[in-house]
């Protein structure tokens, strides 16, 4: 799996998280925290991918 795949996953994941948060605006704080952590972890992968790109 190349770095490009991580970037695609990151973009797709970010979009789906945003859509879910709009739908589930009444969700519990804990659920929102988990989503936030997931997004932060994805951002680290995305940044890593950008750094090693020529």
From TrEMBL:
<protein>
    <submittedName>
        <fullName>Uncharacterized protein</fullName>
    </submittedName>
</protein>
């Amino acid at each position: 799996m190349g770095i490009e795949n991580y970037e695609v996953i990151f973009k797709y994941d970010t979009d789906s998280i945003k859509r879910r948060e709009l739908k589930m605006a009444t969700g519990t704080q804990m659920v929102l925290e988990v989503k936030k952590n997931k997004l932060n972890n994805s951002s680290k992968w995305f940044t890593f991918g950008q750094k090693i790109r020529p």
